[in-house]
Design goal:
272 residues, single chain, 7 strands, Transketolase_N, 12% strand, transketolase activity, globular, 5-stranded parallel β-sheet, Rossmann fold, two-stranded antiparallel ribbon, THDP-binding, transferase
Length: 272
């Protein structure tokens, strides 16, 4: 798929993420928008997952460790055809399968129920260990937030991944430098993440999370690493694509009003 096609998919993912949050008047738009390009490339170009093998253990798996960014996650799954597009506006509504945090019991393409930060990446490491023991050659991917790296459980998982030389897992960190309370560096500084992951025995890759050529190169390199895990540190902008949301901590978990929704959709070139 060429870059222009990927950009169209990612932009549609952003539009649907905004629709979901606006429809629910609840949810997390900031991180959904910052990770949209990464998740789009992961699902359309990297992972071995499709309608035919979604129910099989013989495929790649993804764990959304930063489980609150379901508006973006569900929108990617809808873009890929695993969720009906019309279900996006049922987000967080009573009776909907699209809960505020992903539930693997409701959506077949969701590989792990997540929400409590740090637990998703720990589960992903367990999946990678199981694949090694079973001789399953498929890969595990997990996406964390940089604020999530304040959790000690993240580093326990990193320690295990390195100790067991899990070259079948790729950690990804959405480094948008903002969390619900403000700047990550001011709330509880986790940087420099590259040095920390190197210290835990990881191969570290750093890339622009909004440049599809850079995204491709980062994945290609990370997947070539042998006998140790890899982590990709994505440099991103929280709220990417919506003018008044970009780089604003206040849009970590807040729904737009009608006027803001219209402006957001205008910014993204979408229909209301």
């Amino acid at each position: 798929m060429n870059v222009e096609e990927l950009k169209k998919h990612a932009n549609h993912v952003r539009q649907n993420a905004i629709r979901a949050v606006y429809s629910a008047q609840s949810g997390h738009p900031g991180g959904s928008l910052s990770s949209a390009d990464i998740l789009t490339y992961l699902y359309f170009e990297v992972m071995d997952i499709n309608a035919e093998n979604v129910g099989s253990i013989d495929r790649d798996r993804f764990v959304l460790s930063k489980g609150h960014i379901t508006p973006g996650y569900y929108s990617v799954l809808a873009e890929k055809g695993f969720i009906p597009q019309e279900d996006i506006t049922t987000f967080r509504k009573f009776g909907s399968k699209l809960q505020g945090h992903p539930n693997m019991n409701y959506i077949e393409a969701v590989d792990m129920s997540t929400g409590s930060l740090g637990q998703g990446v720990s589960t992903a490491v367990g999946m990678a260990m199981a694949n090694k023991l079973d001789g399953n050659k498929h890969h595990i991917f997990t996406l964390l937030g940089d604020g999530e790296c304040q959790e000690g459980e993240v580093w326990e998982a990193a320690m295990a991944a390195s100790h067991y030389k899990l070259d079948n897992i790729t950690f990804m960190v959405d480094c948008n430098h903002l969390q619900i309370d403000g700047e990550v560096e001011k709330v509880m500084n986790v940087y420099p993440l590259d040095k920390k992951f190197e210290g835990f025995g990881f191969e570290v890759v750093k890339a622009n999370g909004h440049d599809f050529e850079a995204i491709k190169n980062a994945f290609d390199y990370a997947l070539s690493v042998k006998r140790k895990p890899a982590v990709i540190l994505w440099n991103t902008v929280k709220g990417k694509g919506v003018s008044f949301m970009e780089d604003q901590a206040g849009w970590h978990g807040k729904a737009p009003n009608e006027e803001q929704f219209k402006q957001a959709m205008k910014d993204l070139g979408g229909d209301e």
